[in-house]
Specification:
mainly alpha, transmembrane, membrane, transmembrane helix
Length: about 60
Amino acid sequence: MSDQQPADPDSARNVENLALLVVFGVVVAAGIWLLWTMADVRKVQDCAAQGRRNCATIERPER
């Protein structure tokens, strides 16, 4: 007889759920980053479409 117990199916399910949660979090974070990037590009394109010349974002240093 073997002293090993059969693998707990709930344990495997918990690991799978955790992996899916991590993947879901990465997909959501990537989607949010993509939306912010698209909004920034849209602002620059709208500015250029209006014929303005200085549409670049100006970064100012913090004091």
